[in-house]
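Final report, Chapter 2: Outcomes

The project's central promise was a pipeline that accepts a single protein chain and returns its three-dimensional structure in a standardized token representation, suitable for archiving and comparison. That pipeline is now operational. To close this chapter, we reproduce one record exactly as it appears in the project archive, with the input sequence first and the structure output second.
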Amino acid sequence: MDKPEYNLVSFSGGKDSTAMLLGMIERGMRIDCILFCDTGLEFPAMYEHIAKLEKDTGMSITRVRAEKSFEELMFYAEIRRKPDSAALKKYGPDIRGYGWAGPRMRWCTARLKDEPREKFLWEIRKEYDVKEYVGIAADEGYRLERKRNRQDGHVHPLVDWGMTEADCLQYCYDRGYDWNGLYEQFKRVSCWCCPLQPLTELRQLYHNHPALWEQLKEWDKRTWRQFRADYSVEQLEVRFLFEEECIRAGKPIKGKQFFAELKEKLAEMAGTSNR
């Protein structure tokens, strides 16, 4: 016996999923659920955006969260690691928690987004045939191909409507959604503490979100894996401060001389902290 159809909007809160949701509402498309996987790590302005969207549309957004918080998983989770694992060899046998995510171990996506999402959908699929609307823009061919290879039942309205990422952002701006300027600072607005962000975006975090930056420093001091392979958070702060000095002095913030002087400053910092 065929199951009834269930139309679910996969909603991240970003420009693409917001444009998709607004476009579906304007076209009178059926929506049974708007699903937001809350990592607890969104920018404050993102939570404000989601609340505004609910108020403006009169539609409720379903929030799901992992059973354990980011901090619990990062610092305290009991993880069975193989005796010959690279982490144990490098950091010793007493490490706890996942530590910072890396390019080959994006545990936060799996534990904070994928698992709670799939747990929610598992129950829905018992009674319904789920059609999931996903906000992939028309100029994100690489993401579309990846999703098509791995997922069934996904629909991509933005592709059908020919809306690029730039179109989506302007569409949202035209309707009064600006995320309090987040997209003027960041290309992608996701978890603010992600160590996989490029330096350009971490620089924006440092300059424009001081409270979040202080939290980032505190977390980096507590965990066993350094924030990035090339920099700790404190080292990044030294770099960004040095960049400001160079700009004020009319000096370049790249090139051999810049990095030689930066290396000296980082060495001074290390010497001071070891005293």
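Archive annotation: The chain is about 50% helix and 10% strand.
This record, like all others produced under the grant, will remain available to the consortium after the project formally closes.
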